[in-house]
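JOB MANIFEST
job_type = single_chain_structure
chain_count = 1
residues = 441
[input]
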Amino acid sequence: MTDQAVTKIGEAGRLQLVGQPQPAAAKTRNVQLLEDLLKFREPVEQLKPSTEIEAPGDDVSSVPIRSLKTRHLVIVGSFLAIVALPSSLTSLYMAFIAADQYHSSSSFSVRSIDSTQPSDILGMFTQASGGNTLSDSYVLLDFIRSERMVQAIDEAFGIGSVFAPRGIDYFYGVSRRMPIEDKLSYWRRMVSVNFDHTSGIMVLEVKAFEPEDSQRIASFIIAQSEKLVNDLSLSARNEVLKVAQSEVRTAEERLSSARIALRVYRDSSQEADPVEGAKLATQLVAGLEQQLVQFKTELSTALRQMGEDTPRVRVMRYQIASLEKQIAQEKQRFGSGAVAKQGRNATEDQQGVAGRILQYETLETNREFAERAYTSALGGLEKARIEASAKQRYLAVFIKPTLSELAQYPSRIWNSILMLLGTLMIWGVAVMGYYNIRDRN
């Protein structure tokens, strides 16, 4: 059976059903078959092109058409709200409201001084930057973008005055009552620092509403950066010298203690050098013994010629006794005996020349060792000072802050394009997501 036949039979069945209603029980088999065919045909008729003529009473296809128009209107409205309106407002703001911004750029790097002699011609040109300044460069990079720099700029120039809104451009301006966290975010938008890891060169760019302000702020940043590098260099130098200076202080205290102990010994013994005193005592005893031998010889000769009671013999015997007594006293200084003296310790009296020499040599050895340690510590301190001075950091400025003559910021066309592309992407993702969900359901 063809489609036209089915359609005609269906229309005939409809007319019959509408004009002559029949009870459900009286339906024939043919009428039931026509009703089933009509029910199967209704979805197909909804997919007919809009050019076909529908029956006046048949409004089944008008519901999808209204829903389709509503969906299109929502898509168009969302496009206007998400894409057209923000892009237009951004373009108008950039064209008529946004204030001009002038930039000042500068280039510098952290360098180190190395006093070692280069071994070739290439070393003569690379020795100035041979030190490891990468960590110092990162420290300087963070310092420029830190809250400490914002506070310094605010104290020196006043961020609320320099970056105050121009006209009604409140987007690129900063409020005076803005908290420090918001000022830091604004500062990082207005100041950019690019660091080249290969060459170690840092490029600073500062934006402001006046060219003189941007140049003054850039100069201030370089001055603060140079101060920071000098402080870091001084701190590193002090850390290097700290250990050497501590060793020097320890050696100096040790030498001072050794000298004080030696001085106390000399005060108590009343001898500058017991060794030299022992040498002099030995020479004295030898001379006295020589005189004693001479006097005994003369006495023996005189006894052969004179009597015992003659004055000459008595004098000679008295001289011999005096020499023997003096020799005995001098020998006691070498440890041959102990002489009790009132007000002294017995251990000090009985030690003799040998004990005093041992004590003196011990003290002298400690003093000499302390002097050598002190001399070595002084040499280490001087060497550390030379090495620390040879590895100092400094800030080398290649390009001083420039004075801009043409406002290059904000990038009006580029910002408008970015806004258009961003909103268009958001709108496109939303529409595709809607259709994806619709198709799945």
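[summary]
Strands lie at 102-112, 191-195, 201-208, 393-399.
The chain has a mean pLDDT of 76.
exit_status = 0
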